[in-house]
Amino acid sequence: DAGITQSPRHKVTETGTPVTLRCHQTENHRYMYWYRQDPGHGLRLIHYSYGVKDTDKGEVSDGYSVSRSKTEDFLLTLESATSSQTSVYFCAISVGDGYTFGSGTRLTVV
Amino acid sequence: RKEVEQDPGPFNVPEGATVAFNCTYSNSASQSFFWYRQDCRKEPKLLMSVYSSGNEDGRFTAQLNRASQYISLLIRDSKLSDSATYLCVVKVNSGYSTLTFGKGTMLLVSP
Predict the structure, then answer these.
(1) Dihedral of CA A68/A29/A51/A99: which sign?
(2) What distance in Å separates residue A103's CA from the closest CA in chain B?
(3) Is A98 close to B46, i.e. CB distance below 8 A?
(4) How many Å apart are CA B26 and CA A67, to the nearest integer?
(5) DSSP letter string, A65-106
């Protein structure tokens, strides 16, 4: 177990509301990532972080922001949730050459 | 053209069969290659890295052809527990490298 947890596991929210998803790791890894996974698209990178306060955009960053004020926490915020952001969100940490993923957050925007 | 392309399947095979998955990638600067496995409603998990010389882990064999930008995964003697989606993944080792995932190939092994 790589010590990576996501919260919440499931969330239903209304269109237009802000939502924050949390990724927490216990092993002091420098690199952390947020992906979304949708049918027909596979996993797509939203944002990633290469250290405290150091973040960068991925392939599908519009409508999302991130923050990393501590090594162990990487937060993903949907500034104003839309139905197109209904998805499964995975956080990952870089372990060796590959990644270890959290269990995912299933987000539904109604 | 998608960076990493896979046949989506599903591949339906009986127990004991041999099945092969193929993957092509478009970025010739890709340096690291992997196969991940994802069970239904679960997170992806690393199955194996893919090395230039090819590598084997039990019933699983991965091959890489850099000239053709092609990766393969062979599963011998399929088990029911092999039913999952197999993701082809590449990494370009420059700057802050990130992994790029294919959409995955679904495998269904039946009794």
Answers:
(1) negative
(2) 5
(3) yes
(4) 32
(5) EEEEEETTEEEEEESS--GGG-EEEEEEEEETTEEEE---EE
Q: What are A22's two structure tokens?
A: 């949390």
CB-based contact B99 A98, cutoff 8 Å: yes
Give tens-digit pLDDT for A54-94.
999 999 999 999 999 999 999 999 999 999 999 999 999 98
Q: Looking at this protein, which amino acid is placed at residue A49? A: S
**Tokens matching residue A58:** 């991925």
Provide, as residue numbers in chain B, all residues whose Cβ is less than 8 Å from the Cβ of A30.
none
CA–CA gap between residue A54 and residue A84 (Å, rounded): 27
CB contact B105 to A (< 8 Å): no
Q: Do B45 and A101 touch (CB under 8 A)?
A: yes
Express each pLDDT in B2-50 by its tens digit: 689 998 889 999 999 999 999 999 988 888 999 999 999 999 999 999 9
Chain B residues close to A50, C-beta within 8 Å = 96
